[in-house]
Amino acid sequence: MSGLPRAVVLLSGGLDSATALAVAKAEGFAPYAMSFRYGQRHAVELDSARRVAQALGVAGHVVVDIDLRAIGGSALTADLPVPKGRSPAEMGEGIPVTYVPARNTIFLSFALAWAEVLGASDLFIGVNALDYSGYPDCRPEYVAAFEAMASLATKAGVEGRQRLTVHAPLLALTKADIIRRGLALGVDYGLTSSCYDPGPDGRPCGACDSCRLRAKGFAEAGVPDPLLARF
User: Fold this and answer.
1) Which residues, in sequence order, are bridge partners of residue 37?
2) What's the pLDDT tens digit per position in 44-99?
3) Is 75 in contact with 81 (CB distance < 8 Å)?
4) Is the dihedral of CA 151, 155, 159, 161 positive or negative?
5) Which of 34, 56, 85, 96 has the smallest number of Cβ neighbours within 10 A?
């Protein structure tokens, strides 16, 4: 990857972030993956992140420890039940309890810091249209605002050595579109994990919002989900 422009890619180990990583590579970047152990109940996703990073061939991969359980406020970081069996209409109403307060801002800030160290001017995040209806930090205006702020926030930016671009290549895509794009780029979705409340072995619950959106995406894409073949 010598000579390629560097990019920091937020990699959770889920379907969307794996696709965003593949897009970064396809667009000619040397990707540096950043994952977080933040006290999430679905920490098995970090095993998926490592598998995806290895399979897609990153230039570097770091896992950052942050204890967001110290502030809670989400079913993913506190002892609150994860919603199960909700309909698409129910999932599209309001901000769900699985929203982690300011999570993308926290993650992008760490990515921005690493980008400055790496001399990179590009960040990739896998937010998409199915998320931003319920999650405030997955909307196009949020991505644009963070990008504008980033140019003011770093030494490299103030000195004119860095003009940061936040790439959100999945923003306007449905889950089915994302899956098709990823398959075309060689993503093995059997390595990923999307469930908010998986078993100890990583088995998806099949009923949380994320599992249901994933299942809907594969059904609409007309292909089987290879993750299910593992269990």
Assistant:
1) 65
2) 999 999 999 999 999 999 999 999 999 999 999 999 999 999 987 788 778 888 98
3) yes
4) negative
5) 85
Which backbone phi and psi does 97 adopt, to 5 degrees? -70, -10
61, two tokens: 């991969």
Q: What is the C-alpha separation between 169 and 155, in angstroms, rounded?
A: 27
- 37 vs 44: CA distance, rounded Å: 10
Residue 168 contacts residue 127 (beta carbons within 8 Å): yes
Q: How far is CA 119 from the centre of its chain?
A: 22
Picking from 217, 213, 214, the residue whose alpha carbon sits closest to that of residue 176 is 217
Residue 109 phi, psi dihedral angles, 5° rounding: -65, -40
Q: Which residues contact 27 (CB under 8 A, 6 or more apart)?
A: none
Give me the domains of the chain, ranges plus CATH numbers. Answer: 6-230 (3.40.50.620)
Paired with 10 in beta bridges are 34
The three-class DSSP label of residue 35 is strand
Nearest to 121 by CA among 154, 169, 170, 83: 154
Residues 6+ apart with CB under 8 A from 28: 4, 5
